[in-house]
Amino acid sequence: MARKTTIKNDDDEAEEPVRPSFGSSAGAGNFEDPNQQRFDDELRPSKLEDIVGQMAVVERLRILLEATKKRKEPLGHLLFDGPPGLGKTTLATVIPRELGTELQITAGPSLSAPKDLLPYLTNASYGSVLFIDEIHRMPPTVEEFIYPAMEDFRIDITLGDGLNARTINMKLQPFTLIGATTRSGMLTAPLRDRFVNREHLDFYTTEELSTIISRNSQKLRTEIAPEAAHEIAIRSRGTPRKANNWLRWTRDFADARANGKITLDVARAALRMKGVDDAGLEEQDRRYLETIINVFSGGPAGVQALGHTLNIPADTLEDEVEPFLLREGFIQRTPRGRMITAKALAHLGVTSKSKTKSPRDNSDPASDQRELF
Ligand SMILES: Nc1ncnc2c1ncn2[C@@H]1O[C@H](COP(=O)(O)OP(=O)(O)OP(=O)(O)O)[C@@H](O)[C@H]1O
Ligand SMILES: [Mg+2]
User: Fold this and answer.
1) Per residue in 106-161, pLDDT tens?
2) Residue 252 lies in a domain
3) 272 is catalytic
4) Nearest Cα to 190, choosing from 153, 231, 224, 151?
5) Is the CB of 29 under 6 A from ligand 1?
6) Count of domains observed in the chain
7) Does some domain include residue 301?
8) What is the pLDDT of residue 278?
């Protein structure tokens, strides 16, 4: 059954967040966490003007939307790629709202055969948006089925088998496919090329995240000091979803341990309790870096081998852990594998010869002694 979410462009209703049903597939970053899905939806901007950051992307989208509205034609197919939690789903749901069209949502993993996609395609009205999250996880048979739908707005359905098999063509209403992926590299070239518009989302600046945190604390009716918003922003790995999650946690902490106001001290204490250090690295990141140092002598280390050692799927490392560590220069990717950098060694308090001090625990320096290379 196609899940369909109609988005009205009525101003009175514009504040109401879009709450489409994603089934279990809410995106690579939160694939199996229904709470995360609910949290995301609660704080998701509903209009383009509420989107913070990604200025170049938003500017290009504005142009596309304006041209589409003027010409009264469907928007060209659009692909968003980038690490989890940066706003792919947000932008994909804002666009139909801006255009005043309908939105249907599904995700690559729930499309196991062409018949799963069929209802979405036949239900798509003129100019409406079909959003396929995690589009890189669509099986090849579904991918091939979608090509003529994207290109010529028609589908080819084969009926019967063997000599009796015949193909019938079915015309579709021109629609817009919006795809989102954390792995654009995993998309086949023919699929990627069928998206006339492609946008890459990058990590956010501390200032942008501070703005998101301050705005959302108002939505959550919580008072937050500007320095506290800045502190949370620094530790949010350039990711709005992380910023929102830390905001929620510091708010709980402030309610339970303080007078409900998020001050700088409250924010620091709350994040310390979660093991977030001043570069925004969490336990998992530090374990990842320490594994390269201790098990692989600083690298190179293959992602599969790292995944086995850490007992974390290699996909998760590639999607959720590595992009930020790479961007911040804590690791390097070489053809032979991941290498630790001097910056990571300095951050973890490891020197290339001898003494090591973990930034979190200096109670027992002997237990942290490591010798490198
Ligand atoms: N530009 C933005 N401005 C304000 N808030 C944002 C922005 N981008 C994302 N957010 C917030 O971050 C949350 C996560 O964003 P979103 O679900 O769009 O990420 P995603 O890229 O789809 O992640 P995934 O790859 O895990 O599916 C949203 O609920 C929203 O509250
Ligand atoms: Mg998403």
Assistant:
1) 999 999 999 999 999 999 999 999 999 999 999 999 999 999 999 999 998 888 78
2) yes
3) no
4) 151
5) yes
6) 3
7) yes
8) 86
Q: Which of 254, 255, 201 is nearest to 231 (CA)?
A: 254
181 and 238 in a common domain: no
Query: 256 alpha carbon to ligand 1 midpoint, in Å?
Result: 27
Last residue of a domain, one of 273, 305, 332: 273
CB < 8 Å & 24+ apart, contacts of 211-219: 211/52, 212/52, 212/53, 212/240, 212/243, 212/244, 213/243, 213/244, 213/246, 213/247, 215/52, 216/43, 216/243, 216/244, 216/247, 217/247, 217/251, 217/262, 219/42, 219/43
40 is catalytic: no
Q: Which of the residues 89, 222, 341, 356 is marked catalytic?
A: 89
Q: Is 54 contained in some domain? A: yes
CA of 138 to the centre of ligand 1 (A): 22
Partnered with residue 80 across adjacent β-strands are 180, 199
Active site residue 241: yes
Q: Which two tokens stand for residue 19?
A: 């709450």
- Catalytic position from the list 181, 182, 239, 341: 182
Same domain, 108 and 171: yes
What mean pLDDT is reported for the chain? 85
The answer to whether residue 350 sits within a structural domain is: yes
Ligand 1 atom at minimum distance from 41 CA: 29
**Region of poorest pLDDT, from 90-94, 128-132, 182-186, 369-373:** 369-373
Task: Let me know whether 332 and 239 are in one domain.
Answer: no
Select from 24, 31, 33, 40 the residue to mutate for testing ligand 1; criterion: most ligand atoms less than 8 Å from CB.
Answer: 40
Could you tell which of 46, 90, 91, 220 is best to mutate to test the pocket of ligand 1, judged by most ligand atoms within 8 Å of the CB? Answer: 90
Check if 107 has its Cβ closer than 6 Å to any atom of ligand 1.
no
Tell me the CATH number at 74: 3.40.50.300
119 and 38 fall within a common domain: yes
Q: Full-prediction pTM beyond 0.90?
A: no
Does the beta carbon of 124 sit less than 6 angstroms from any atom of ligand 1?
no
Nearest atom of ligand 1 to the alpha carbon of 40: 29
128 and 158 both lie in a single domain:
yes
Structural domain including 357 reads 283-368
Residues 90 and 181 occupy one common structural domain: yes
